[in-house]
Amino acid sequence: MTSSLHVGQVDNLSYEVDNLPYKIAIEALGIHDYGGGRTATLNLLGNLLALDRENHYLVILSQPEPGLLARNLQQMIAPTKNRFLMRAWAQAILPFKLRQYDLVHFVKNLGVFGLRIPTIVTMYDLTTLIHPELFPRSDIWYWRHIQKNTLRRANQVIAISETTRQDVRTHFGVDPAKISLIYPSIHPRFRPSPIERIAETRGRYNLPERYLLHVGRIDRKNNLRLLIEAFAHYTWLLDQSYRGALVIVGGQYPKSPDLSLDPAVERLALRDRVIFTGRVPDADLPALYSGAQAAVIPSHHEGFCLVAAEAMACGTPLIANPAGAIPEVTGDAAWLLDEPAVESLASAMCEVLSNEILGARMREAGIERARRYQNKDDAWLTLQLYRNVILNETTKNP
Q1: Tens of pLDDT along 245-291?
Q2: 331: in domain
C-alpha cells in the first residue's frame, strides 16, 4: 500500500497523517475511576483529537465523557461498571465489534483475546507484581499470567516511563523493539494560581493559610500512614509552633483501600490537623497545589506520577519517596527522601518549610522541570505509532 502524506501544524508540532482516514478504536474502560489512569487518558485523548481531524475514533468507555467531543469521534458505553463484568463484556463483544477497524489501543493496561487487528497496550506501572502484598490475589494472578500473554501478543506496548519500560522487559520478557516510551502530558490548567484564586479555594474547603498537600487515591500503595505519622513527628518534635494542616485530597480506592488512616489520626490526636477533602473537581487542583507549602508523595511505587508533574507545574515544592519513576520524572527539582521512614520524611518537611531560599529555588526548578510534560508530545508520538503499526501490518498482509 502506498500513501501520500500531508504536514500540519498544531502547537508548534509538525506531524504526518495519511490522507486515507483510518478507523481506530481506543479501549478506555475503567477510566470512570478517579486517578492517574483517568487523568492521563483524558489528557491524551484531548490532545489527540486536537491534533488529528482525519482518522475516525471509537472510544470504548464505562461511562459517557461529555468533554470528549469531536466530529471524528464516537463513544461506545459498556453496560456495567463492575470491573469483572466489564472485562467479560469486552471479551465477548469487542472481537466482533472491531473487525472492521484498523487498530485498537488499550489505554489502561488490559486487553482482550481473539482480535484480528493490530493492538497497542499502554502500561502505566507494574506495582501489582513489584508489591504483591498490597493487592488481592486475583489481581496478582491476572498480572502474572493473563497480562503477560496480552503484552506478548500486542504489536506494540507503550510504557509511560523508562522505569515502566524496564519493568515490562524484566517481568514479562517483552521484546524491547516492541516497547515505545511515551511520557504522558499534564493539562494546561496546571500553572501557578493567582493569590485571589488560592484564597477563594482555601475558603471553600475551610483550609488554613499553611498546609502540606497530598493528592491521590487513598490506597495502600500511596503509603499515607507514613505521611500522617511523619506529620505528627514534625509538629510534635521539629516545629511545635507549626499550626498548619495536612490536607489529603482523594477518595478511597475500593480495590485496595487504606483503612488504617482514621485510626492513625485518632491515635496521634490529629483530628483537627489532618483534613480529608475527598475527591475535588479538577478545576480546583491548581489552586490547591499553588496554595500548599509543599506537596508530599510517599508512595511505595510509581510508574510515572502525574501528581508530581502537576505539583511542579504549579510551583509547589515537592517532597517524594524516590520509588519507581519518581526520580526520572522530577530530576533535581524535588526533595527525594533517603529512605521511606518517619524521621526522614519529617526532617524533609522541616527543611523545606523552614528554609525560604530553598523553597523558592524548588518552586523555580519545579516549574522548569514540568515544562517537558506540557508540550503535548504524547499525542504526536501516539499518532505516529498508530500510523507505523497500521502500515507495517498492511505491508505484511497486503
Answers
A1: 999 999 988 777 888 999 999 999 999 999 999 999 999 999 999 99
A2: yes
